Structures are given as structure tokens and as C-alpha cells.
Hints:
By secondary structure, the protein is mainly alpha-helical. It is 44% helix and 6% strand.
Amino acid sequence: IQLIYSIINREQYRDVSGDPWNGRTLEWSVSSPPPAYNFAIIPEVSGKDPFWESKKAKQISPPKSYQDIVLPKNTPAGLFIAAFALAFGFAAIWHIWILAVIGLLGAIVVIIIRLSDDHTDYVIPKAKLMMSGNSSSGKGTA
């Protein structure tokens, strides 16, 4: 019965604040679901629980100024390097030298390709951050 009731009323009880349990630490200050960047402005930490203190004082201050956020792009390179390294390790233990050479060369080639890539990050412009309404505590309408 509880499962059916929860499914029927899910929109009414959906949490978008990121703080459904009145948490103390900064991870509870991020909106739900969390944005890719967590904090539009890195919060200043001056005590043990700055988010809790600001909630008690009811003073969650608005941000002073936004800056562009640079984030890394997703890449499958780590997975490929791990697969080649696994093949190399397996082949080296069992003396399968052709597979060991292929695994070692494959890992080296993927590392070189990744290191030579100049487009490894992307930017979230400050205009987009200001539109989403994020504050220094990370709360927003994301």
C-alpha cells in the first residue's frame, strides 16, 4: 500500500532542495539533482558546519560574482588503458608474449592519443550559471 501511495503522490513529495533531512554539511546545500559542477561559487568555509550555521542564522548569502566553470569531458580512454593493461598483465604471467606486446603497445598508444588531445574540457559560461539561479551555497533551480 505504501509503495502504491508513494508512486501516486511522487510529484507532491519530490525533493528539489537537495536537503530533505535538514543536513549539516555542504553536500546538502547542492540542489537535487545535483548539477555537473556542484557549486557555482566555491563556498567559504570558516567553521565545522558552515551550511548548518547559515541555516540557523537564516542567512544564505547571494553570490557576489560568477565565473566560467571549466570541466573535463568524459572519455573512454581509461577503460581502454585498463583493458590493455589487463591483457598485458595476464599475458606476462602466462608467458603469452604476443598478447603481452599487443597489450603494452595498445596501452601506450591510447595514452599517447589521450595526451595529444587538445579538447579535453568544456566550459559552462557564467551567463548560464546566473540564469539557473544558483547561489554561493549551491542552491538553485537546476
